[in-house]
Amino acid sequence: MITSSAADKLKSHFRGELILPSDPRYDAARSVFNVAIDRRPALIARCASPDDVIQAVNFARQEKLIASIRGTGHNVAGFAVCDDGIVIDLSRMKGITVDASARTVCAEAGCNWGEVNDVLQAYGLAATGGFVSVTGVSGLTLGGGLGWLVRKHGLALDNLLSADVVLADGRLVTASARENDDLFWAIRGGGGNFGVVTSFKFQAHSVGTVLAGIVLHPAAAAAGAIRRWRDLEAMAPDESTQGALLFHMPDDPSTPEPLRGAPIVGLGGVYAGAVEEGERVLRPLREYGPPLVDMFQPAPYNTAQRMADFLWPAGLHSYWKSSYLKPLSDDAIDVVVAFFARVPSRRTVIVLEHNGDSAWDRVPDSATAFGHRTWPYNFVVTSAWSDPKDAERNVTWTRDFFDAMRPFAAPGAYVNYLGGDEGADGLKAAYGAKLAHLAALKAKFDPANLFRMNLNIAPASVVGA
């Protein structure tokens, strides 16, 4: 428990907001994207500046509190909040500055990718990161950074130039290729294990208008449509980042009657190059079937980044499972289609991504802590439902689905897609042979494991104890 005298001492040095359980804002402040997460922290510290973060970190260390770090976005594991400890909440830190001549952008830790790319769009620039606009800059970058520009420009962390980090001892340092390069290596993939990043500096890219959208096919045609997408991906240029999704169309008046509530396979994404060339490259995908609907059109990049937002609304119970895949086989596709046919919730979305043979796997594996650039396909089940009574059947279906996909799974996983219950298996899947080096760096920067509300990398001294 936090004593009133301790809280008063923190308050005297804190510019942001301190929210205690007695505060009428408490329940809203502790809620996260996944409503299945119901944790009750002793204190929520909404930081207004890096100095507030320093004060909150020092307070957590001195009071021997568990600390969770909250940015923004939609991570379903719920690591952003903790029971009985302190939430160091960065969601109000939303400063964004652009150097158009250098094509760089600095974003504070409370920004999401939609906010960053809204600012960049005015300069004809974009930052690579996020398939959905509400995805947080912090969590996505620290764990990797997939998004609509990944095949052309790599992961978000591949475009990170520097970061300001508050360490467990309360020091604010800069991590880059020139300063604290070992910390810089670790935070590019190692998640929030090594400190609290308060701001990020990214390389941005000339993007402007893209060709973006999706073609929709009935679920009965899903196997053939996904195979067509897979075969075309073998020839896809770096400018094209396309995925396959299985979902139900919204059951509301905004959806045309023939599609309302219908099970669908969608094939689509972004072509980040000349629109005319994109029309040529994507024609075989768009003409196959033919589709029920072709929704591809030229769009500003920041608009394109919002096109999938409706698939992952806030306020639902969520449970995710994910793994990289070996080359996507017909048998694997058949399993995906079969499980979608008996999905228990119409809010669940199944995603197949193709990231390989592109900028993302041309980065040397040793360059960052990010694991596994060798597997070209990713599989993620984003199960979601409204009624808490439906949790068991949705979780069971998801686990059964994941088990059925094990014969096709690669020995690796994308840390940002893990659901939070994988434990040691999740660490091994996410980092592989890099885990020992990460544990050694954890011992250097956070020997007491203050930052453990994450897919936790224990300090090497703890590992060997």
What is the fold's blueprint, element by element?
Blueprint: H1 4-11, E1 17-19, H2 26-30, E2 43-46, H3 50-62, E3 67-70, E4 86-89, E5 96-99, E6 104-108, H4 113-121, E7 125-126, H5 137-143, H6 150-153, E8 160-166, E9 172-176, H7 181-187, E10 196-203, E11 205-206, E12 209-218, H8 222-233, E13 240-248, E14 263-271, H9 275-287, E15 293-294, E16 297-300, H10 301-304, E17 317-325, H11 330-340, E18 349-354, E19 377-385, H12 391-405, H13 423-431, H14 435-445, H15 460-463
Mean pLDDT: 95
Strand content: 15-25%
Structural class: alpha+beta
Number of helices: 15
CATH class of the largest domain: Alpha Beta
Folded structure, characterized:
By secondary structure, the chain is an alpha+beta fold. The chain has three domains: 84 residues, Uridine Diphospho-n-acetylenolpyruvylglucosamine Reductase, domain 2, CATH 3.30.43.10; 111 residues, Uridine Diphospho-n-acetylenolpyruvylglucosamine Reductase, domain 3, CATH 3.30.465.10; 215 residues, Vanillyl-alcohol Oxidase, Chain A, domain 3. Helix content is 28%, strand content 23%. It contains 15 helices and 19 strands. The strands form four sheets. Strands 12, 13, 14, 15, 16, 17, 18 and 19 form an eight-stranded antiparallel beta sheet that branches. A five-stranded antiparallel beta sheet has the order 5-6-10-8-9. A hairpin with a 4-residue loop joins strand 5 and strand 6. Helix 8 runs antiparallel to helix 11 and helix 11 packs antiparallel against helix 12. The longest helix has 15 residues. It is globular. The mean pLDDT is 95.
